[in-house]
Structure formats: structure tokens, C-alpha cells
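Protocol step 4 of 6.
Sequence for General stress protein 17M-like domain-containing protein (Endobacterium cereale) entered exactly as in the expression construct, tag removed. Do not edit the line below.
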Amino acid sequence: MRTITGLYDSYDDARDAVKALEDAGVPSDHISIISNQDGKEDIEGQGNNAAEGAGTGAGIGAVAGGAGGLLTGLGIMAIPGVGPVVAAGWLAATAVGAVAGAVAGGAVGGIVGAMIESGVKEEDAHVYAEGVRRGGAVVAAKVEEDKVAASEAILRSTRSVDLTARRQAYTTEGWSRFDDAADPYTADQIAAERGRYRTDPRV
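Step 5 output, C-alpha cells:
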């Protein structure tokens, strides 16, 4: 199994990626989504099921459901440096565990630690986490080796961010790595950040 990941500028695009992966036969329990909670207006009307898939009892509360698949397990959790996020799947549960481990042992915690543990390169994990902090969403899936190319094509076709270009955009303004001690972005900062990359009226 290999972990594939995509960064998105909106919950809608990330949701489309999750649904496309499920439609392609990737099991729901092999997929995760973590999206900045500032996009909560995007998930209104999806119901109120328990967030079992996102790790109930580990700081995640129920917010949504009704669509079937992974998205029925959306819950709310807090990530240091990001603030409240909507999340579901193994990555969210791992992030909660990574926070606890970092607190206990000084390791890299939260979303960065969870992604590194799943096989994502550390430098990329920092960009993904920063992207979520700035209002975006990350989708991660564990797929069989023979489905990696097709699954990565799905992520690209659902408007995933060019990670190299986004890292360059961040570093141009002095950013070097995700800081989980930093204040979460405000709604106004997120709106401004989204405006920098807006290519679709849904974003």
C-alpha cells in the first residue's frame, strides 16, 4: 500500500476527490479528509451522524453525514496551529494520536506527524499542513501499488494544488515550515488567502 495525497483550496474540491476515489473502488476506510473549519458553510445540510470514522472519543465531535461513504463520518477536531477542522478517516485519527505522542515525547505532532507516519515526506507534510491552516483541505488515501497512478490522476483531475508551486508561493513570503504554535488564520486571512488562488467561484 502507498499513501497518495492532494491539497485543495476548498472543501468542495476535496469532497469531489473523496467521492471520485470511492467511485473508482478505493475503500472509504482507506481515505481521509481534513479541511479547515472556516469552510463549514460548505458542509451545511449534510446531516448529523456520529463521527465514528474520524475517531470518536479522541477530540472529534459529530457534524455531518448523509451522503454515504467516508463523508458520513465527518467530525470536528482541533489541530494546533490550524484550529478547528472538519475531518474523517484514518489520517484524522492518526493526527489525534500524533498530538498526544508529541505532547508526551516531543515528537512532531498533529497533522504533520500523522502525514510523516503515513509515508509522506516531511517537507511535503509541512506544506499540506500550512495549506490547511490557510483555509484549504487535504485528502489522503492508502492504495494498492497497481492503483497508485490512476488514483493520483483522480486527485489531479479534481483540482488538487500543485504542491511545488504552492511551496514556492509560501517561501517567497518568508515561510519555511508549518508552526503548530502559531495562531490559526482568521476568517479574513483565509478569505484573502483563497482570493490569491481563486480560479473557481466555488472556492
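Step 6, annotate. Residues 10 and 200 are 10 Å apart (CA to CA).
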